[in-house]
Design a protein that fits this description.
Elements lengths: L12 H17 L3 H8 L3 H8 L7 H11 L3 H6 L16 E4 L4 E7 L7 E8 L4 E4 L7 E9 L1 E6 L2 E6 L3 E6 L3 E5 L5 E8 L2
Antiparallel strand pairs: 1-2, 2-3, 3-10, 4-9, 5-8, 5-10, 6-7, 6-9
Helix pairs in contact: 2-3
Length: about 200
């Protein structure tokens, strides 16, 4: 979320488009802010501020919303972009930052309606720790390939340490946690495949 001390920085274009998409999704489901708050455990005021681009949602908040709407975070973020092209140049890849957790997410191969898989590059700052209380889609297939640093991944109450070059393959049914495990930032590729 954006810090509130000092003059407020204007929201960036991605946050504005994301806010509009979140409001549209809630309207399409016919849910009030109260109903969505009950489904996600997110306060009505936070939901309202996110839909007006007054805050930049955290990864955890977006994950809860994605679960309610039955889509992956990548799919949600791709919906705020123009029609996807078959070739995605590095300079055109959407980068999203969760400033609070130190998580940077690059959509290398964004989702496409005709495809079930996508590639994401994740970067976690030293000490960064992000937890998701549930997958956006139950049974989501993930392949986590660490390129640099070390990453602790916990899924189904089982923790695993991944070093550079290691790959973890799993289906996600419950809570997961990603933590930078070393004294250098962790960089990894996440391959996501819809069930």
């Amino acid at each position: 979320m954006r810090r509130t001390s000092g003059p407020a920085a204007p929201p960036d274009d991605v946050d504005v488009r994301l806010a509009a998409r979140l409001a549209d999704l809630r309207a399409r489901h016919g849910w009030s802010l109260g109903e969505l708050a009950d489904r996600t455990g997110i306060s009505r005021s936070t939901l309202s501020r996110a839909e007006r681009a007054e805050i930049s949602p955290t990864a955890s908040l977006l994950n809860r919303l994605c679960h309610a709407y039955g889509r992956t975070m990548s799919r949600l973020l791709s919906e705020v972009e123009a029609e996807p092209a078959p070739l995605v140049r590095a300079a055109e890849q959407t980068v999203w930052r969760d400033r609070d957790s130190g998580f940077v997410r690059r959509s290398v191969s964004p989702p496409h309606p005709a495809l079930r898989g996508e590639l994401v590059e994740g970067r976690l700052a030293v000490g960064a720790d992000i937890a998701y209380d549930r997958p956006p889609v139950a049974g989501l297939e993930q392949h986590v390939w660490v390129l640099e640093g070390a990453l602790d991944v916990t899924a189904d109450d089982v923790g695993r340490r991944l070093e550079a070059g290691d790959c973890l393959r799993l289906r996600v049914w419950g809570p997961t946690r990603f933590r930078c495990a070393g004294d250098v930032p962790a960089r990894y590729v996440l391959a996501v495949v819809l069930p």
